[in-house]
Amino acid sequence: MTWHLPLVPAGEPGAELTAGQDGATIRRSVLPGGVRVLSEHMPGLRSATVGAWVGVGSRDETDGHHGSTHFLEHLLFKGTRRRTAMDIAEAFDAVGGEANAATGKEHTCYYARVLDSDLPMAVDVIADMVTSARLDATELETERGVILEELAMTDDDPADVVHEEFAAAVLGTHPLGRPIGGTPETIKAVPRDAVWEHYRWHYRPETLVVAAAGGVDHDALVEQVTGALRAGGWDLSGAVVPRERRPEVVADDEAAAIPAEGVELTVRRQVEQANVIVGSTGLSVTDERRFTLSVLSAALGGGMSSRLFQEIRERRGLAYSTYSFASGHGGVGTFGLYAGCAPAKVDVVTELLHAELDRLADGGITDAELERSVGQLQGGLVLGLEDSGSRMSRLGKAELVFGELLSLAESLERIRAVTVEDVRELAAELAARPRSVVRVGPFGD
């Protein structure tokens, strides 16, 4: 991992100590077995957020295991060898804490926010869940019904549907094109043995990153994590190295799964509003041009002064919500323009989405738009790091996703370095890629 913050001697093997922003201190240690522990001590904060990041997501599921990653997110809260599901719930409720989990396409995170004095408890409970989940067959069947209801809720929201169908349209049969939560068919079909195999294969020391921010003492955190993982039966005596980050270029077989041409797709739902996305493949999560893409997206559809908002909502009154978005992953990403409108206006709105992307590609943005977009991104970045949860996520993603930890100053510098020409060149490249259109709404034949 590359550390861009100034290094300070750590005083112990396998650890790095860095100076963070606002008087915060960031440290990183690699434990025997490959577990990585990162912390950011934020002076004066009486709370802390800790997360156990596992380098596995829906992208990693193989045939017969589809849906297992999301299943595990639920099942790890349903009991371990030492705790029942009620024990886990009571542990956090008794101290006014919050605990939750999130599944992504490339990683899963189990996290909790508690008072700093309760951090040892949070570490112990989350480590217990990660190492010692029982995956009880009865609980699995109960949770199968819960997950099916969750998927049904998602399917009832046309905005969720259009985004999932857009990813599938752009990425085709690539593993990233699958929905994170699985489908009703895969959730109904996956057996307990497959979920157990998925758990035992992916939940291992070399895939685990523990990140904490707030009122955190790094040395104490390392000791707590080590003790909790050993109590869960993990062997931390070996010299196993952490699992490497995902390749920055997709493999040939994965690349072949991505459609070479744009896809036109209409999904019929009896709803009051049509939802439409126009877009294509984007940039990988580690592409150096990701800062340029952020500026491009801010100017095109990132706020009330953006081109999409001004043209589609303010001038024409065709939509309440319209924006652009980008999602980056290992080796590939997506980029799209969204709008929700009256079904009768969907063709006009779709044409405007195309037109605004083409206009940006042809003429670029103005100096005023660049300045406004850079200011918007800088403010959002700084404000987004005002709480321990966001800083914990920053550490986890730096280790698992980016492979580098940029200081706030360096991140701001990279945003400010984007030029008008950078934006125009990237817009032209994106506009030239095969473009897909996905609509969800009450359309006839």
Describe the 3D structure.
There is one protein chain. This protein is of the alpha+beta class and 445 residues long. It has two domains: 230 residues, Metalloenzyme, LuxS/M16 peptidase-like (Cytochrome Bc1 Complex, Chain A, domain 1), CATH 3.30.830.10; 190 residues, Metalloenzyme, LuxS/M16 peptidase-like (Cytochrome Bc1 Complex, Chain A, domain 1, 2-Layer Sandwich). 44% of the residues lie in helices and 20% in strands. The protein has an eight-stranded mixed beta sheet with strand order 2-3-4-5-9-6-8-7, with helices on both faces. Helix 1 packs across helix 4, helix 10 crosses helix 13 and helix 11 runs antiparallel to helix 12. The longest helix is centred in the N-terminal third of the chain and has 19 residues. The radius of gyration is 23 Å and the shape is globular. It starts with a strand and ends with a strand.
Q: What would you say about this model in short?
A:
The protein contains 16 helices and 15 strands. It is globular. Helix content is 44%, strand content 20%.
Task: Give me the secondary-structure topology.
Elements: E1 2-3, E2 7-8, E3 15-19, E4 25-30, E5 36-41, E6 47-54, H1 68-75, H2 85-93, E7 98-103, E8 108-115, H3 119-132, H4 137-155, H5 158-171, H6 184-189, H7 192-202, E9 208-214, H8 218-231, H9 252-257, E10 264-268, E11 274-281, H10 290-301, H11 307-315, E12 319-328, E13 333-341, H12 346-363, H13 367-383, H14 388-402, E14 404-405, H15 408-416, H16 420-432, E15 436-441
Parallel strand pairs: 1-14, 5-9, 10-15
Antiparallel strand pairs: 2-3, 3-4, 4-5, 6-8, 6-9, 7-8, 11-13, 11-15, 12-13
Helix pairs in contact: 1-4, 1-7, 3-8, 10-13, 10-16, 11-12, 12-16, 13-15
